[in-house]
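Marked as duplicate of an earlier ticket. Keeping the data here for the record.
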Amino acid sequence: MPETTTRASKEREAAKGSGNPFQVLCYEQVDRLHRVMEAPIPVHGRGNFPTLDVRLKDLVRVVRRNLQDTGIHLRDVRLNGGAASYVLGSADQAYNDLDLIFGLTLTSEHDLRKVKDAVLHSLLDFFPRGVNKDRMSPASLNEAYVHKMVKICTETDRWSLISLANIRGKNVELKFADTIRRPFQFSVDSFQIVLDSLVTFYDVSKAPITEHFYPTVIAESVYGDFNVALYHLNNKLIATRNPEEIRGGGLLKYCNLLVRGYSATDDSDLLQLEKYMCSRFFIDFSDVAEQKVKLENYLSDHFLDEETHLKYRYLTILWNVVNESTICLMGHERRQTLDLIHQLGQRVLMVGEPRGAYHRVEYQNQPVLTFDQDKSNLIIDQVYYGPFSYSYPGMDRPQHYYTVYSYDYTNPSSSSSSSSSSSSSSSSPCPYCEVCTQCVA
C-alpha cells in the first residue's frame, strides 16, 4: 500500500464523518474569534455623518440589549459566512462581510419595525463624543449608514437583513431570522458560531483570554456533518445539495469559489450541478436588467476595487459556465446574458487598469486586444467596432470576434498629418475588409 492516499479515498473517509453537526472550538479557534470580535470596523456615513469605529463584540451587546428592551426574545446570536470559515479553517480564509444572525421570533410587521429601530438606535452608542444626537432620527440614520435592507416574509422564510456600509466592501450584515428554509449555499459557507457564551464572558470577566482560561464556544454546520464540511473547507472543495433550492442557484458563489482555487468533489456531477444552478439563476433573474444589477452588486460586495484581475477571471469563469450549461433560455436570451458578462469584463479592465496598459484577454472564440503604452510609435490607423461574424466555405459555423486592430509604423513623424495617415492606411488595409463593411479609416 502506498503511504499517500488519493484525494478520492480521503473524501470517502471524510464523508463517513460522525453525523454530528456541532463541535466545540479549540483554544486557537477561540483566540481567532476573539480577535475578530475585537477588531475595529469602520462604518462609513454619507454626507456629513461621521465614520463610526465599531467593534463586533460591542455591536452585538448593544443590539441585543436594545432588542430585549423592546420585548423581543432572542434565541441566540451567531457569526456566519466567511468570518466563521476564517475562524474554523486550518489556513487563513479570506472574507469580506461580517455576518451576524440574531435568532428571534417575528410574528408581525410591527416586530420588523422594532428590529429596524433597535439597530439604528444602537448606532448612536458609537458616535464620537461631542456630537449632538438629539436630532438623529431613525430615518436620517438609515439614510446615512445602511448599505442594504431586505425583508422576507413567506410561509417558509421570515427574516430581515440590515447591512451597514463600508466603502472597502467589508460590510457588517445583521440578519434577524425567525425561520430560514435554506440557511447555506455550499458546505464551506455553512458554519455558524454561537457567540452567546463569548459575549457573556466579556460581560462577567475582566481576565484576558489565555490558553488556560477561555470560554466554551460551540459551532454548527447547517450543511450536516461538521467534520465533512470542515474537510471541504480545509481542502477547498465544493459540495452542495439541491442547488435549485437556493435563490439564484448559488451560481455566482460557485464561480467565486472556482476563481479562488476551489474545485468540486470527485463524487459531484459537475455538469448536472451547473445546469441546475443556471436554471435557477435565470428563473430568479430572468430580465437582463435584473442580471446586470445583480452582477454589479455581487462584484462590489465580494471583491476589492484593486482586485481587477480577480474580478476579470471571475467574469470569464461565469461566462464559460453560462455558455456551456444554460439549457433553459432561448438562443437570443443566452447571447444577451453572455454579452452582458463580456461587457462587464471589459469595463472592469478599463476602470481598474492604468491608461494604456497592455492586456491579452480572451473568452472562448472572442479575443480582445488592447494597446501597449511603451510603443511610442503606435498610430491607430483603423478601428473596427465589433462584434462581427465571418465565415468561409467549409466552416461549420461562423466565428465571432470582438477585435481592435492597430498598425505599427517604424518612424512616424511627430507632426504626422491626416493625409500621411491615409496613405499608410491604404498600404496596410484591414485583413477583413472583404467581409467587413464597418471599418472606419
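See parent ticket for discussion. Residues 1-5, 355-393, 399-441 have pLDDT under 50 and may be disordered.
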